[in-house]
Amino acid sequence: MTDEQGDRSSCSIFNLRNEGCYVILFCKTECSLVWVSRKKLPWSDCSGKRKNMRIGICEDEQPQLRFLEHEIEAYCAQHGVPAETESFGSAEELLFQYEGAMPFDCLLLDIRMKQMDGMELAANIRKKDRAIPIIFVTGDRSAVFDGYKVGAVRYLLKPIRRQDFYEALDYVRGQGLGGEARERGKTKEDFWCFPYEGDFVRLEKSDIRYIDVQGHYVSVHTEEKDYCYKETLAHLREELHDDRFVQASRSALVNMEHVEAITRQECVLAGDVRVPVSRGCLKELNRAFMDFYDTRNEK
Known about the structure:
alpha+beta; 7 helices; 33% strand
């Protein structure tokens, strides 16, 4: 039996809460809190109920539009997620219908359209909604590079492969970005810039899972990529200036948004990523975890 299993078998549950999209379980022994766990519910809204996946499609070719609608329905049926799509035959029609933030979990935009194209449409959308995931559909490989200016999350090259399409929707679902739940109007404090391979990288802080240090170098770990550059952990924490990042050991910071469980030996993050926990940091780590969700409840 592992230490973690021993802790669980001997502990008593003193708090079990449903935090909307998460179930939070706190356990303790006679002496101290030893295990905290957070489990995400299936694609759900703040009440914990299963939520429709709302997708907006802007495509001026009817055969391609019907194909996208069919693939979305097939994907949602396979994953047990109710689907809700709204289609637009032009960029002008979409902008006329929704003047402000978009009430969708993501947008599928064709790049080559008559009059206003998808790239210009995306630029207009970004003026009002900085967070909505945009997936471009295009037959032109050269257009892919222009999309970085408007923050597209994926490009689907025609003819679209089902595997690529499903992976794009998996990514959107994994981000948990719903129309009503998504945070709008992000400021510069929500992002962090740092030097990397002769350039500067700009990341949203919520995308960072954890940061650790080896020697004179720190590694910034996200779901998509790891970034390693020369820096001290102490200076990096000062630059972040964010209470979500808490020390799990002398050589690692974890982002509370991604923590799913804490034991005496390790901190388990989303995706079953495990970060060692030192004895000296355990108490503060547990306290920070509970404070983080108590604060979110009060908002």
